[in-house]
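Would you mind writing out a protein's amino acid sequence and the numbers that encode its backbone to help me picture the idea?
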Amino acid sequence: MLPFPPSPNKSQHLSVPKRLPLVVGVLMATLFLLPAKGLAYDLKDNAIAHARNGQLLMERQQYDEAIEEFKAAIRLNPYASMAASIYNNLGMAYRLTHNYANAYASFQRAVRIQPPFALYYRNLIDTYRSAGQLPAVKTQLLTLTQDNPDNAEAWFLLGLTYQQEGNPNQAQPCFERFLKLQPEAELARAAQAALKQR
């Protein structure tokens, strides 16, 4: 499970588990997919049309309306092959409205649906940076990689975190470790590309 930023209250931070439990993650995803008060969706609607409308609204910088369109698309067909892309777009809309908690949940959901897409991981790390949570996330990832050095996903995220901070020398061993653990993974190409950017 991807790390979740700690609470700003230190006493709460000490009691928060290192990973967000799956049940809580599913509950959050369910809550932010509920339609806004007074809105109802026609079940004969087309998920693709809502996704396209959401993209058009994003281009027009109408982020709140785009969020509703993306949520409608997901509600109509949550198991479609394009669901990861819609969750990614929903995360971008939430990030642009500074609703970081829902942005994290959206990007995490996109990553879970299609783990090979490095873009979703990058968007998640960039959202942590935008929210000022990158140092806390880095600390959690460092702890996670120390506790479980075979967690390839954590190494990849740690590499992206260092890259986002502008520390390619610290990112390099993280991507190398990821490649050692999962050389055949689809994310391996993204890790190799990150190493070449150095």
